[in-house]
Amino acid sequence: MITSKQNQYVKLVNELHTKKGRAKHKRLVIEGKKFISDCYKLGVKFDILLYDENNESFANDFDVNKCMVSSNLLKSISTLVTPQGVIAVVEQPNAILKKPPSNFLVLDGLQDAGNVGTIIRTALATNFNYIYLIDCVDVFSDKVVNASMTAVFKVNLIKAHRNEFINAYREWNLPLLVADLNGENALHLEQNYDIIGLVIGNEGQGVSNEIKSLANKIITLPMDKNIESLNASVSAGILMYIMKYRMKGE
Question: Which pLDDT tens digit goes with each residue over 109-163?
């Protein structure tokens, strides 16, 4: 049983709780029994499964490298409010910047991890399976991963800098809608597209002018005069459902 904070796996988990550590090792941390089980069934590659003395029977179901860790030590490296006694280190998904074959999402400068994680889950539900992250919060941070659950392993997450994305997009010749407070009513969208993209901007600043200049159309959601804007993940979810079902006639 591992009891020392100096153990290589304990130190690795702590390192992966940082952006620098995740970038260095190309790994991420997942926690919770259901989350870990679901990832295992998906075929996600495990480096190590750490479990406490209360979860030995759970760990026995996994044909991966694994080690028992003292309960208190495992709690100390967990990021969950209520740790479940199991933590795994797995490979990060790796997607390259390329033209999407289906509807896609562009997140321009989003910094709230909860928003990004929620948007990823909704994108999976609406078949926006290519997500371009332009200078966003680290998509493999604990908060994003926990909010998105297994969706981070089921969609294509492509990190890019703004100019890098713009140069690539100009070669794709695909329609792009930008969500903005000053735009056409999104509820009136009816045109069909084989492939279309949606841009959601930074929580405070909105979509950058550089990305906005690429838009075929600027759209907005009608709101009561008593509120100025919606949460980014709520807006993204509503717009993706509108685009999936109204614009494609599904």
Answer: 999 999 999 999 999 999 999 999 999 999 999 999 988 889 999 999 999 999 9
CB 193 within 8 A of CB 246: no
Which conformational region is residue 121 in: left (phi greater than 0), alpha (psi within -120 to 50 degrees), or beta? alpha
In this structure, are residues 244 and 250 in contact, taking their beta carbons and an 8 Å threshold?
Answer: yes
Integer Cα distance of 120 and 98 in angstroms: 18
Amino acid (1-letter code) at residue 12: L
List, in order of start, the domains of the chain with CATH numbers.
Answer: 8-91 (3.30.1330.30), 104-245 (3.40.1280.10)
The pTM score is 0.91
Closest CA to 120 of 87, 159, 86: 159
Place of tokens 């290519």: 130
